[in-house]
Amino acid sequence: MTTPIIGCIADDYTGGTDVAAALRRGGLHTVLLFGPPDPHTSLGGADAAVIALKTRSLPPPRAVDMSLSAQRWLHDRDTSQIYFKYCSTFDSTDDGNIGPVTDALLDGQSAGVTVVCPAAPEHGRTVYQGHLFVHDRLLSESSMRHHPLTPMTDPDLIRVLQRQTSHPVGLVPLQIVHQGADAVADRITELADEGVRHVVVDAVDESDLDTIATATRALPIVTGSAGLAGAVGRITPRATRTDTDPHPTSTDPHPTSTGPTVLFAGSCSQATLGQVALAREKFASYRLDPRTVDDVADLLPAAHAWLTAHLGDDPILIYSSAPAEDRGPADPQTAAALETLMGALARAAVTAGARRLVVAGGETSGVVVDALGVTAVRIDAEMDRGVPWCTTLGTDEPVALLLKSGNFGTPDLLVRAALPGPAE
């Protein structure tokens, strides 16, 4: 087994696909694992291993335990650097989990300092003077201020992180970043000597991320969004591989798996709503509407019958995505029941022969992956930035998965993903 050069721990499933795509884009052969990996899991000839967990909204002690388990698994494989990936909007509460998990990972590696850089300039996320911007607005003025689980009302990353850790938080400002990697590395060392453990680093474009990645090559723990991970991938040498690689990576933006295609959409973000609207114009569709029943579970028989009747050569869409005025009062229990229903239907679809699943929404993706019992995938080419096709590993028949964060993708993403590639 080739030792992975980079190990990554992501705090949700679509975040895992996003960072795995970024590492792959940098030229690294990448394998994505879902949940704490089995000790016997093989990585083939991977350059990078990403472990996607669902820890973003867990109580901090549980998030820490799961992250440390993943760290130990990676450490046993002599990973040279561990990257802790969180969202580019720094999704967290005053209790965590970014601070507690980072502290635990640093302790686990006996490391004294790390960087904190959620910048993803290609998605409009930048950090300046320690403040996080979404395009031309402070984070606190973006839609994230209304997030139901992690409302982000403070754009100052130093303040936000200081509420989550007992250790000092410092800053490397943009003017030092523009002086080059050596200047950044020197400033991180100075701050560490002063007792600072978490160093927020400004970044407003891709070249800044390249500088930060170069400056932090010797750090055992690095933290950030997929933006900085992409830069890490760009500066990391790829392992030498032979034609005997058991998991060759596809460069075709369409999956190699052939068979019926089913789209599942659970996100209610504006991006996904637009994508669902276009998909409904092209494909047969079925809406899961909890307002029509007393118990969401009662939706399953009719939905299953529709799936069975329509599964075939043409793509089909099953969705619960709807604008606020068309889905009733927000109810976490109803939302969770809908996700469970999506997982059951995805499992039924694969059992009936579906070989391509396109899933919109982070929570929906997590439930679908778990329902299918998928523990590892190979990262293939991206349909859109941060939205790669994945091919399941260790299954009797490969299934192609496209797991999309709610806000990601162009308006026609679901349509393009569902249609066969040119070679077919």
Which features does this protein show?
single chain; 424 residues; alpha/beta; Rossmann fold; Molybdenum Cofactor Biosythetic Enzyme, Chain A; 15-stranded mixed sheet; 3-stranded antiparallel sheet; 13 helices; 20% strand; globular
Overall description:
By secondary structure, this protein is of the alpha/beta class. It folds into 2 domains: 6-235, Rossmann fold (3-Layer(aba) Sandwich); 261-418, Molybdenum Cofactor Biosythetic Enzyme, Chain A (3-Layer(aba) Sandwich). 34% of the residues lie in helices and 20% in strands. The protein has 13 helices and 18 strands. The protein has helices at 13-25, 60-75, 98-108, 157-162, 174-177, 181-193, 206-215, 226-235, 270-282, 300-310, 332-351, 362-372, 413-418; strands at residues 6-10, 30-34, 48-52, 81-85, 114-117, 125-128, 131-134, 137-138, 169-172, 198-201, 221-224, 261-265, 284-287, 316-319, 356-360, 376-384, 387-392, 400-404. The strands form 2 sheets. A 15-stranded mixed β-sheet has the order 9-10-5-11-4-1-3-2-16-17-18-15-12-14-13, sandwiched between helices. Strands 6-7-8 form a 3-stranded antiparallel β-sheet, with no helix packed on it. Helix 1 packs parallel to helix 8 and helix 10 runs parallel beside helix 11 (332-351). The longest helix is centred in the last third of the chain and has 20 residues, at 332-351. It is globular, with a radius of gyration of 21 Å. 50% of the residues are buried.
